[in-house]
Amino acid sequence: MRRQCIKVPRKKGEPARRILLGLEILDNSLKIGSDETFLYLPLSREPDTGKLEGLPEGSELTFFDFEPLEKKPVPEDILGFTPAYEVIGDIALLEDEKLDAKTALKIADALLKTQPNIKSVVKPLTPVIGEFRVREFEVIAGEHRTETIHREYGCRYKVDLSRAYFTPRLSTERSRILSWIKEGDTVVDMFAGVGPYSILLAKSKKPSRVVAIDKNPEAVRYLNENISLNSAKNIEAIEGDAREEAKRFAGTADHVIMNLPHNAYEFLDSAVLLTKQGGIIHYYGITPEDDLFESSIELIRKAAEKAGRKVEVLEKRVVRSYAPHQYNICIEAKIL
């Protein structure tokens, strides 16, 4: 298929490709052509020559015979609809607990056929329940296991989904918290789980100390494995109740992470106790759309006042939609 294209020296192909993507004129339905010296980037339409001035030196407009790019099948091609699932490591987690067995198996087969990175497909049998925030699962297809290693921002997290809670949906949020941390800070993660917040922070080498607490012994077992897996040095894993551990570390934290959105309010007194003068609490909650922040801010204020301290709200934001008319929110509150 002969098409107009940009001819560019091979070593400068990637910068040129990015520019054409930004101009929205790169034709992704065709394979990029090449010879020993040049790459040939297919164009979807006649370019405005004035906009091509930013291309790397040696680039020129020409023609080339391209091959069509073979489209890889996706689950929608087999199913006729878009399935709801998330991928944790090499496990696909179907999101609808009410799926009937026939539909679940159909989705699982489509995922395994089209997504080579997926080795197991599971379906939750319960919501997140109990003291340790876990779910029961059924393996629908593929390898019969719920343990995997999930990769995120250069970190690896080993987790068994049936023994400790983990979601990849907060990866951007975890990175955002990292941006709050300064060199030499002390961070206390009150509900650390297998370590997705704590290990990311520790590996950044910004904080001088990360204290990662969780009550679930299985989560702490995986947390310790993940500390070794990621060669994180400045982190301490503690199995225990965050309320009791707060007494040990009272007044030491520059940052307190409270990622227990359904119940974090129950631990606010302990979070205030942990926080040094001017330290910041990162408070997570699940709130209705008609009261996203104010009730939570009031709870933080009351906990601070009880300890004779004041609160300055630095930031409040919606993290994600959680359920109809309900949102997962985060409030950054400085304790004075």
Automatic annotation (TrEMBL):
Keywords: Cytoplasm, Methyltransferase, S-adenosyl-L-methionine, Transferase, tRNA processing. InterPro entries: MeTrfase_TRM5/TYW2, SAM-dependent_MTases_sf, TRM5-TYW2-like_MTfase, TRM5/TYW2-like_N, Trm5a/b_N. One of its GO terms (cellular component) is cytoplasm. One of its GO terms (biological process) is tRNA N1-guanine methylation. Signal peptide: none annotated. It is an enzyme of class 2 (transferase). Its EC number is 2.1.1.-. GO terms for molecular function: tRNA methyltransferase activity. This is Methyltransferase. It comes from Methanosarcina mazei (strain ATCC BAA-159 / DSM 3647 / Goe1 / Go1 / JCM 11833 / OCM 88).
